[in-house]
Design a protein that fits this description.
The protein is mainly alpha-helical. The protein has 2 helices and no strands. Helix 1 runs antiparallel to helix 2.
């Protein structure tokens, strides 16, 4: 089998994915914390903003996962 991607590059892709997942988890926890208090109008706005931040972090994690998966497919299956 011909190596098409350096292992260091796969390691970088994996690290990027893991970091994005950790960021996503942190955003989920922020949103959850805001959902656990008695809401004022300002707190509702913060909670809503946290939901948008969580969604952005989710998309970043999904994108990083795709890059990593594509790298693995290229490395192991040559496509």
């Amino acid at each position: 089998m011909t190596k098409t991607i350096e292992l260091a590059e796969l390691d970088r892709m994996q690290s990027s994915y893991k970091a994005a997942v950790e960021e996503w988890i942190a955003e989920i926890r922020k949103e959850e914390a805001l959902a656990s208090v008695i809401h004022s109008e300002a707190e509702i706005d913060s909670w809503e903003a946290a939901g948008f931040a969580e969604e952005d972090a989710r998309e970043k994690a999904k994108s990083a996962k795709k890059v990593y998966e594509d790298g693995l497919r290229e490395e192991f299956f040559n496509f």
